[in-house]
Every structure is written in structure tokens, then in C-alpha cells.
Amino acid sequence: MKASTFDDRFDAGESVLDSLDLSKASRPDLEVRRVNVDLPEWMIRSLDQEARRLGVTRQSIIKVWVADRLEKRPAS
Fold it and tell me: Does this model's pTM top 0.70?
């Protein structure tokens, strides 16, 4: 399919998903990479308490807090 046909279908509100190979799609800078972090017991208890209060997992709260902190840092 030509790019102009693809664009026309998209602009018309038609689905273009059948024209895409999503098996190789990726989202740059969003690939997951596992890391291990050792934390004192008191931090883990506090994290678990806050996670229960919010109804989320410990991992979720850690990711949100780290992301929040990184977004607030000055641009370099």
C-alpha cells in the first residue's frame, strides 16, 4: 500500500491496523530492564504500607516515585 493511501484511510477514520506488522513494534526508551536494589527493612515496610493504602503493588509505587523524581530534576 502506498503511503498516500495509508494516510487517506487513516484520515478518513478507517482502521489501518491490518496494514501494519505489529509483531516487531517497539516503544523506544520504554523497554523493561530488571534491576535489583537492596533496601533496609524499614523502607520495605513503609513502601508496603503506602502501597496497601493506595491499592497498588510495591513495584508500582517505586516506579511512580522514581519517575516523578527524575522528571523533576533540572534538564542537563
Answer: no
